[in-house]
Amino acid sequence: MADLDAEVAVVGAGVVGSAVSLALSRRGVSVVLLEAEPEPGLGASGTNSGILHTGFDSVPGELETEMILRSTALRYAVLEPLGVPVSRCGAVVRPADEAQRKTVAALATTAERNGVEASLRADGSLEVPGEAVTDPVACTLALAAAAARHGAELRTTCRATAVERRGRDFELGLAGGEQVTCRVIVNCAGLRADEVARLVGDDSFEIYPRKGEFLVFDQPPSEPLERILLPVPTKRTKGVLVFPTIDGKVVAGPTAVDQEDKDDWSVRPEARNAILPKATAMYPPLADSDPIAAYAGLRPAGRRVNYVIARSTVCDRLVNVAAIRSTGMTASLGIAERVCELLRDVGVRLGAAEPLKKGSPPARATQWWRRAAEHRKP
User: Fold this and answer.
1) Is the pTM for the entire model greater than 0.90?
2) Alpha helix stretches (DSSP H) within 7-97
3) What is the Cα–Cα distance from 116 to 72, expressed in whole angstroms?
4) Hey, which residues does 180 pair with through a beta bridge?
5) Please, what are the domains in the chain?
6) CA separation for the pair 193, 322 (Å, rounded)
7) How far apart are CA 71 and CA 336, in angstroms?
């Protein structure tokens, strides 16, 4: 690979980095998008649930909620022209007892405060028609490909290993010995975002992996699942959910296991017993089914921080987009818009957004969930 020059280097071609690159390139900014893996979406972005949330249950006033709600407003104007498959199947939350009925009623109040359509039924269940499901790999690849059509340079197998300042420029050293010269770095490196920040001397946050394991099933013929079944959340986790995929399967999960190893994508033997009882309580037909696949995703959780989207206090031309946990796919378009605003504040000239250049969705040989299960095998 020859050395590159660009106004902005985006580190990480997950769904957030790809969305940021598309937003910038549509506004006339020269962008190089660097991905350590052989292709986009092989990290957390391609190993999640693929659910596009509405923000009905998000804490009002928080940055994460703002990004989710903004993304919801932008979503279909971007995803539909790019050919990203989306099933607007809706979701339901059903309480199991009186305590859970109160929690679900509180969720209805939160949805109203966030301006999200939701209906509280007489049996205490909450229906959220705007919840949807996509193919998370197709979504990530489509955003990256669209960014390239608008002029962004996508380079894969390019891990950033060093950063040096040259006056008002940065020189990023890559693992293969090449260099990228840029004015601004946007750090969307997911699990490695803290490591990238430290290359510029910023140790203000730390990322650790929270493992979420999933089981994949064929659709039970007796009672096909047609919408997302959401559990009543707890303070720590949203819990195990059950949802139909774009390609006609059923997925149950995730678990929530905090760990230290950023390279351990294995599915634990005990994952099945952690998921199945909760999943079958919500969707009894799974009791007679065996999983056809299992995969794990590592969510980039922050220690005592969540949703870091800001210029670094060490160098304002480093923009950190970090600790974007399970809602990264949902919030990616809003995050991209926020990053554009931050870059404008440091002198990056952004024009009006060009109309999206349409293209065929990238072809893939395997389903996204099978890709997730097979790529990270030990």
Assistant:
1) yes
2) 15-26, 63-79
3) 10
4) 4, 172
5) 4-375 (3.50.50.60)
6) 6
7) 9
pLDDT of residue 236: 64
Burial class (CB in 10 A: 0-12, 13-18, 19+), 99: exposed
Centre a 10 Å sphere on the Cβ of residue 287 and count the other Cβ atoms it contains. 12
Q: What length does the chain have? A: 378
| 3-class DSSP assignment, residue 198 | helix
Strand bridging mode 207-218 / 228-230:
unpaired
Residues 96, 97, 101, 104, Cα dihedral to 10°: -40
Q: What residues in the chain have per-residue pLDDT under 70?
A: 1-2, 235-237, 376-378
pLDDT, tens digit, for every residue of 144-175?
Answer: 999 999 999 999 999 999 999 988 899 999 99
CA distance 367 to 292: 13
CA distance 172 to 184: 11
Alpha carbons 259 and 19: distance in angstroms, whole number: 28
